[in-house]
Amino acid sequence: MTPPAPAPPARRVLLLGATGTIGRATARELVTRGHYVVCPVRRSARTLPELDGAQLHVAEAASAGAIARDAIRADGFDVLISCLASRTGVPADAWAIDHAAHVEALAAAQAAGIGRMIQLSAICVQTPRLAFQHAKLAFEAALMQSGLDWTIVRPTAFFKSLSGQVERVRRGKPFMVFGDGRLTACKPISDRDLATFLADCIDAPARINRVLPIGGPGPAITPRDQGEMLFELTGQPARFTHVPVRMLDAAIAALDAGGRVSTRLAAKAELARIGRYYATESMLVRDEATGAYDADATPAFGNDRLRDHYARLIAGEVDAALGDHAVF
Predict the structure, then answer these.
(1) N or C, which end of the chain is more exposed by having fewer CB within 10 Å?
(2) What ranges make up the beta strands (E) of 68-183?
(3) How many CB atoms lie within 10 A of CB 72?
(4) Do 97 and 103 form a contact (C-beta atoms < 8 A)?
């Protein structure tokens, strides 16, 4: 009988973005595996139950010098994992968090002799048109050139970002889609499965110095599919409201005009552009030669499925936790 393979050694992991939904799931997975996990967090986040077992250092990731001073200190780490991301995606926020804060963390890691970084990115950077996408790509380029061993993970849509209309459908309202509801598709991945994939990267030599797109299990689904799931689960007849994409274009044009004199309207225009992007671009691997999105080329991982997540939401067993990036 072949003896079981030995468990990978425990690592010392510095985890950024631990208070976000993906970060919390990742912290929990790392602690469960026996890793020593340090999370720089705001003071108000020290009581999050998902971070039990991790070492919490009060630090502001976006503050100059905070990672080196308040998080790394004199500790030695094997790997830096970042689940940190801008909350809104507007230009100032994106360049401050998705780029500048990460550049500083990278410099601190280099100075401390950390040899490996695992970066959570997003699959939408394949076709960059938005500020946060350009900011993420600028940091990815810096990481690739840093001399550290790196892994960049680009997940497809998250369950939470596809849950914005659950309550709407529960109240008997129609599900809103752009166009015919089949303009886009994705392979959504749960927080838990993505956390498992990130943690697996630590001891996976084949994932070093690679960009890894990743989706959840099962076939790609469209917004129309999402709505039909919700109607079936709530026992209601399917009803859809079809919104023309040109309405978004008109709203963006109006907000852009106002944004010339108002920073608030300029920020709203960027948020509208983000909404339009997700309404018209699939979250799947893109074929660079043809420009087409390819569900078959999008790797699938894990066991959790969106339908089951919807069922738990409807039953009140889990919280939607939509955050700032909820989309239709």
Answers:
(1) N
(2) 79-82, 116-120, 149-155, 175-178
(3) 24
(4) no
On the question of pLDDT at 27 being above 60, the answer is yes
Look-up of token digits 């106002």: 258
Long-range pairs for 3-9 at CB < 8 Å and ≥24 separation? 7/34, 8/33, 8/202, 8/203
Distance between CA 46 and CA 251 in Å, rounded?
Answer: 40
Phi, psi of 186 (to 5 degrees): -155, 165
* Strand residue runs (E) in 254-328: 285-286, 293-294
Query: What is the pLDDT, as a whole number, of residue 320?
Result: 64
Give, as one character, the DSSP assignment of residue 324.
G
81 strand-pairing partners: 15, 118
Contact, 215 vs 246, CB < 8 A? no
Cα(280)–Cα(324) distance, integer angstroms: 19
Nearest to 270 by CA among 119, 95, 122: 95
pLDDT, one tens digit per residue, over 4-16 is 666 678 899 999 9
Reading phi first (left if > 0) and then psi (alpha if -120 to 50, else beta), residue 204 is in: beta
Q: How many CA atoms lie within 13 A of 145 on its CB side?
A: 7
Cα dihedral sign, 15-21-26-32? positive
| Nearest of 140, 89, 22, 86 to residue 277 by alpha carbon | 89
Q: Which residues contact 36 (CB under 8 A, 6 or more apart)?
A: 10, 11, 12, 13, 55
Give the largest CA-CA distance in the chain. Answer: 74
Per-residue model confidence as pLDDT tens digits over 272-293: 999 999 999 999 999 999 999 9
Instruction: Name every residue whose Cβ is closer than 8 Å to that of residue 266 and which is 6 or more positions away in sequence.
Output: 255, 256, 258, 259, 260
Residues composing the chain: 328
Instruction: For residue 80, give the amino acid letter.
Output: L
